C-alpha cells in the first residue's frame, strides 16, 4: 500500500522516537507523525491510528491526526489567508498550514484576483511532484451540485460567492440548498457596479431565469426603484456642490459616469431625465445645475440690472 498525500488512512504505530514523534507504517512504508500533530491521547506502539497524509515544509511525507477541510479529489470553499504576487493565493486548509492556489489558476486581470478573507471554491489535487495543490472548481464540479432557480426568485435579492470573474461578467454560486449550493448565475459586466473579485461575497438581484434554471443577475435596483434612488443621490450631490452645478451631463462619457457615481450611463440619463421633468435641474452645455441655483443667479442678475436702471434715472432727474 502506498502513502498518498491528501488521503486519510489507518496506520499502525511502529515506534516512538523522542523528541520527534511516532513512526507509522502500512507494512511497507513508514511516515513520521510529529508530536504536534497528535489529537487526543497519545497512542501506544502497535495501536492503529487514522491520519491524513501531507507534505511538510521540507517536502517530506508526514502524517497528522488533525482533520483537513478538504481531501484529495474533493471540492471545498476555502478562505484566502495570504496573497503572493508571483506564486498565487494561500488558502486555509484546517491543518495549521496553508494550501497554494497557483497564480496560473487566478484571473489575468489583477482587479479580479482574490484578497485575504475572500473564499474560493477549489478541488484538491497534486502537482507534477505529487505535492498537494489547489485548482479552481469549474462548472464540471459545480454544475451537478446546483439546482434550477424557481420562477418565484425573479427580482429577489440573493447572496453568493463569485466563482469566476471575466471581462464579460462574473459567475456567482448562489446560496441555498441543504449542502449550501443554490443556483448558478451570471452578473453581466454592464450590471456590475464595480469589478468583482474571485471569491468575493456579493449581493445581487435576479433579473432573468433561463430555461436551464440558471439566472442573470444585477447589482442594481429595478429601473423604477433605481431611478428614484439615483435621482435622489444626484440631487443630494448637486446640493453639496458650490453653485449647485456639476460638470456631468448627458454628454459625459459612460466610463466617467461609472467611476464617479457607480451607475451606468443609461441609469444616469434616467435619473437626470426624472429630475428635469420635475424641473429640479437644468443642463447647459456639459454642465448640470440645480434650477434653484440657476434661478438665484438670474434673480441676482435682474436685481443688478434694476438697480443700475434706477441709478441712471436718478442721475437724469438731477440734471434736469
Automatic annotation (TrEMBL):
Molecular-function GO terms, alphabetical: nucleic acid binding
SMART domains referenced in this protein's UniProt entry, alphabetically: S1
Coiled coil: none
Alphabetized InterPro entries for the sequence: CvfB_fam, CvfB_S1_2nd, CvfB_S1_3rd, CvfB_S1_st, CvfB_WH, NA-bd_OB-fold, S1_domain, WH-like_DNA-bd_sf
Biased composition annotated in UniProt, kind: Low complexity: 306-320
Pfam annotation, one family: S1_2
Spans annotated as Disordered: 298-320
Source domain of life: Bacteria
Domain S1 motif intervals: 155-220
Gene3D superfamilies: Nucleic acid-binding proteins, Winged helix-like DNA-binding domain superfamily/Winged helix DNA-binding domain
PANTHER family, per database record: CONSERVED VIRULENCE FACTOR B
Family in the record: Belongs to the CvfB family.
Protein name: S1 motif domain-containing protein
